Amino acid sequence: MARYARVVGWGKYLPDKVLTNQELEQLVDTTDDWIFSRTGIKERRIVAADETSSTMAAHASREALELSDLKPESVDLIIVGTCTPDHIFPACAALVQDSLGATKAAAFDINAACSGFIYALATAYQFVAAGTYENALVVGSDVYSRILDWEDRNTCVLFGDGAGAVVVQASGSHPGSLSFVLGNDGSGASTIYTPGPCGVNDGRYYLTMKGPETFKFAVNIVCEATRQAVAAANLELSDIDLIIPHQANTRILKSAAKMLDLPLDKFYMNVERYGNTSAASIPIALCEAIDEGHIKDGDKLVLVGFGGGLSWAAMVIEWGRG
Ligand code: ACO
C-alpha cells in the first residue's frame, strides 16, 4: 500500500513584546517611512529575557500537538529548523523534546537559515513516507534579536523573533507533499552570515548582510525554486492556489510576483506585523493563512524560502488533513 505523509496540526508562538518602527527611530538613524516603504515592515516581536528559540519552539509545538490530538509520547521525531539555537550543543530539538516530554522521539536541528523550516519539513516527510516514523514534529524557531547589532540600521530594522510548528503524520491515502526542491550556493556564504565562537573571527557575533545582493538573489530564487517545484509536481503555476513565501520583504515578493506573472494576492504576506523571523516565518504564515480561511482542503500550496547559505527550498503540498 502506498504510504504518504501530511500535515495534521499546526501552531505558532510570537513573544508578547512588540517593537514598532517608531521605537526603532529612537535607537538608530531611521524612519518609519523608510522601513515601511523599503520592506513593508511596521513592527516585530522581541523575546523576553527568559525566552529562547527552544522555549518559543516548545510553545508552538504544544499548540500543534493539541490540534493533532497527539500526545508528546507518540512523537517519533522532532526536527527544529533554527540558526539561533540556545546552545552550540545540545540541539534546540533536544531541549524541545524534554520540555514536551516527547520521550521516545529522535531529535535534531537543521541549520539552513531562513530555508530551515522547509529543509526540516522535507526531511520529516522522507522519514514518514518511508515508513520509518509515524509522527514527526517539525519546527522553525529563531531569535534574531540576540544576533543583531542594534546600532546597525542596515540590519536591525529587518528581523523579529518567533516560532511555528507542524505535525507530519503518516497517511495511506492523502498525498501531502507533491514535490520539493532544496538547494544551496556556498560561494555566496558571505552575502548574509553571522560568525560564531568556533570560527576564526573577532568575537563580534552580529548578523552581517549585503542588502542589495541578498535582494537580487531572493527575487530570482523565489521564482526559480517555485517554478522547479511546480514542474516536479507535474503542475502548472496556474494550478497553484496560494504561495506561502519566506517573509523578508514585500518588495521581494512584489518583484517575484511580477516575474512569475502571478497576481500579488497569490502570495500570503504578514511581514508587516512580524518582520523577518527566519526559519519561523513560513510556519507562522501557514498558521495565519489557515486561521484566516485562505486555505481549504484540496488546495495546492507552494512553500518557498531563501536565506543564508545561500540556501533555498520550495515544496508543493496538496492540503488536507486526510
Ligand atoms: N533607515 C534609513 N536608511 C537606511 C536604513 C534604515 N534602516 N538602512 C539602510 N539605509 C540607507 C543606506 O545606508 C543607504 O544610504 P546611502 O545611499 O546614503 O548609502 C540607503 O538607505 C539605501 O540602501 P540600500 O541598501 O541600497 O537600500 P535598499 O533599497 O536595497 O533596501 C534592504 C535595503 C531593505 C535591506 C534591501 O536590500 C533588502 O531587503 N534586502 C534583502 C534582505 C533580506 O531579505 N534579508 C534576509 C535574507 S534571509 C536570511 O537568511 C536571514
Given helix and strand content, the structural type is alpha/beta
Count of domains? 2
**Helix run count:** 10
Query: Which spans have pLDDT < 50 for at least 5 consecutive residues?
Result: none
Bound molecules: acetyl coenzyme *A
* Count of DSSP strands: 13
Helix content: 25-40%
The H-and-E topology, N to C, reads as: EEHHEHEHEHEHEEEEHEHHHEE
| Largest beta-sheet details | 5 strands, mixed
Provide key terms for this protein.
single chain, 322 residues, alpha/beta, Peroxisomal Thiolase, Chain A, domain 1, 2 domains, 10 helices, binds acetyl coenzyme *A
Task: Describe the model.
With 322 residues, the protein is of the alpha/beta class. The protein folds into two domains: 4-171, Thiolase/Chalcone synthase (Peroxisomal Thiolase, Chain A, domain 1, 3-Layer(aba) Sandwich); 177-318, Peroxisomal Thiolase, Chain A, domain 1. The chain has ten helices and 13 strands. The protein has a five-stranded mixed sheet with strand order 1-7-6-4-5, sandwiched between helices. Strands 8-13-12-11 form a four-stranded mixed sheet, sandwiched between helices. It starts with a strand and ends with a strand. Bound molecules: acetyl coenzyme *A. Acetyl coenzyme *A (ACO) binds at residues 30, 34-35, 38-39, 113-114, 153-154, 157, 192, 209, 211-212, 214-215, 218, 248-249, 252, 276, 278, 307-308.
